[in-house]
Each structure stands twice: as C-alpha cells, then as structure tokens.
C-alpha cells in the first residue's frame, strides 16, 4: 500500500478560484492531495467576523473541510489562503462619493460609491483582518500563508478589471483551466510574469500592495508559493 499523501488546503473566496486553479495545482503539487475550502465571499468583510474571532473562523473552515473530505488533522500539510484585495488598502480619500453610482464602481485610481462611509469602514476592517492573518505563520499548528490577487482573481488571471457577471466569471475560469490545466510549466511562467508578479519577499510584496492605490491595480504575490 502506497504512502498516504499529505493534504494542502486552499482557502478561496469562490468556486471560480477552484475552477481556474484546481487542475493545474493538482498537477504541480501531484505529490500531495489538494482540497479547496470555498468561503462564498470575502471572509474578512463578513458581518460576523472580527479581529477576536477570525482565527477561530479559519480553524472552523479547516475542520469542516477535514470532515467533508475525511482526512485527519495529522494529514494536513499546510493551509494556503487566497484573497482578492478589492482596493481595500487605498487611502480613505480615494473612496469617492458618486451619488449616481447604483453599485460600487472600481477604477485603477479610486472606488466610487454612493455610501463613502460604508466602503471606508469595509476597507478599514479588511485592512486590519488581512494584516492580522498575513502575519500568521501557523493556524492550529499547521503552516499558513495568505496570498493575494489584486484587484481580484479575474484582474490577475485575465487582465479584466471591469465588473463581471457570475456567468462571465465562470466562463473565464473555464477558459483558464482549458489553457493551463494540463500545462503546468506555462502556468508557472504566467503566474511569475513581471506584468503583475510583485518583486520581493513575502513581507515586501505585502508592504507594496498595502501602499497607495496598488490594491486597485493588477498585482499578485501568488508566484512566491511556487518558489
């Protein structure tokens, strides 16, 4: 009987993350078993999540995934958390009042909204929780790291900055899987592209994205996971 593979758990915001990345990650990390935990949105901005309970919530996600896929805590090798930045680190002054905005509008320079206070509060909450999580090296005694897509996954993987419908996001994720699912070397070349891969070490890439309006721009530090 062969040796049981260790589990790498990817915590992601939506099903399109799994669709786009699942196949190619399975190939690249074939020595281990890959599982995805989908948080159905941004855990750092959920109403019932705050600085006092966010670590516990991550632990709950890990535990529920263990139960779903029937693996033991001792089988878990590491937890990799992928998030969208959503412009959360921009200065408050870059959140612009636009009474005509029916929904939040993102540009490469600012966020436009008809409720500035709400977005500023959202950003401040996300900033504090992301800074807390990205400073962690372990969750429940297992290696943990957080990586980002800026402004979001579609922006990085497809250079698509406009707002997209669910069906459009699903179609793009399928296209990415078709293109890179069975082409791991091409994927690694892509994810390390100087067009968006932030140079520097883990801390430096986070310091970069937390500065100015970079969190609205097309950047990622996910390439560091493969180094």
Defining key terms:
single chain; 227 residues; alpha/beta; six-stranded mixed β-sheet; three-stranded mixed β-sheet; 7 helices; 9 strands; 38% helix
* Alpha-beta classification: alpha/beta
- Whole-number radius of gyration? 18 Å
Main beta-sheet strand count, sense and barrel state: 6 strands, mixed
- The run of helices and strands is EHEHEEEEHEEHHHHE
| Unreliable residue stretches | none
Q: Helix count?
A: 7
Structure, explained:
The structure is a single chain. The chain is an alpha/beta fold. The protein has one domain. The protein is built from seven helices and nine strands. The protein has helices at residues 15-28, 54-69, 116-134, 153-158, 166-180, 184-191, 202-209, and strands at 7-12, 33-38, 76-84, 95-97, 105-106, 111-113, 138-139, 142-150, 219-220. The strands form two sheets. Strands 1, 2, 3, 7, 8 and 9 form a six-stranded mixed sheet that branches. It has a three-stranded mixed sheet with strand order 4-6-5, covered by helices on one side. Strand 1, helix 1 and strand 2 form a beta-alpha-beta unit. The longest helix has 19 residues, at 116-134. The chain is globular.
Quick rundown:
By secondary structure, the chain is an alpha/beta fold. It contains 7 helices and 9 strands, in the order βαβαββββαββααααβ. The longest helix has 19 residues, at 116-134.
């Amino acid at each position: 009987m062969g040796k049981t593979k260790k589990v790498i758990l990817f915590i992601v915001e939506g099903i399109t993350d799994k669709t786009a990345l699942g196949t190619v990650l399975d190939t690249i990390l074939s020595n281990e078993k890959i599982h995805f935990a989908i948080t159905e949105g941004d855990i750092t901005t959920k109403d019932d999540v705050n600085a006092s309970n966010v670590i516990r919530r991550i632990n709950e996600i890990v535990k529920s995934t263990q139960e779903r896929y029937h693996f033991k805590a001792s089988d878990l090798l590491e937890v990799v958390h992928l998030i969208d930045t959503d412009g959360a680190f921009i200065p408050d002054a870059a959140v612009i009042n636009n009474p005509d905005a029916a929904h939040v509008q993102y540009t490469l320079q600012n966020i436009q909204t008809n409720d500035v206070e709400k977005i500023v509060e959202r950003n401040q909450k996300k900033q504090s929780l992301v800074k807390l999580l990205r400073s962690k090296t372990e969750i429940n005694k297992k290696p943990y790291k957080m990586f980002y897509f800026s402004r979001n996954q579609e922006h990085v993987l497809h250079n698509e900055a406009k707002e997209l419908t669910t069906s459009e996001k699903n179609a793009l994720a399928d296209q990415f899987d078709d293109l890179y699912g069975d082409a791991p070397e091409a994927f690694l070349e892509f994810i390390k592209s100087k067009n968006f891969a932030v140079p520097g070490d883990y801390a430096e890439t986070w310091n970069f994205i937390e500065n100015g309006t970079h969190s609205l721009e097309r950047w990622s530090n996910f390439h560091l996971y493969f180094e």
